[in-house]
Prior knowledge:
The chain is mainly α. Among the domains are: about 65-140, Alpha Horseshoe (Serine Threonine Protein Phosphatase 5, Tetratricopeptide repeat); about 145-199, no CATH class. The protein contains seven helices and no strands. It has helices spanning about 50-85, 90-100, 105-125, 125-140, 145-155, 160-175, 180-199.
Amino acid sequence: MTPNDPNSSPWGESKPDAERAVPQPAVPQPVAPAPGQTARPIRRKPHPWMGLLSLLLILFYGLRLWYSHAQNVGIRHYNAGLVAENKGDAQGAIREFSLATDSAMKDSDKADAYFRRGYLLLHAHQNDKAIADFSKTIELNDTYEEAYFNRGLIEIDKGQLSQASSDFDRVVQLKPDDKNVAAERERIRQLQNAHSSAK
């Protein structure tokens, strides 16, 4: 035993291991800046992908917000077209439906806008424009039986009897109980017979 041994007692007996002093780890002390200098904060360098990811997120939500707004604009024009049509303002309705078709609406909503405009054009005797709108309606929604029926009516007037017959066949597939198709098919049959007799 030595006089300065922390593990020995004053009576010359060693302390138990549990009572012996445990050396403490050294704690690094902050280094003070030199006189005239200020301490610099530690800055972590951002990951190179973080900037790109943030940009993509901003772009995604920006496009989503724009598309939602564009859809709402199209629906407002479509509803305004219905109001104008109910008031008998055909030109105003056509204008509103045209604005709706130019918007970013869903295909099903845009098909309705094309059909309503085509229907008004048909009653305004603008058959070429009307048939184009009915065809666009069918392109967006191939189960739109009213578009097939109205396109078939125009095709009969244009003498396109085979195309009209195909359109009415499609109407029957989509709506077997449509009673108007039978009359139009009979009209096609009579016209075909008349053409055959004239030859």
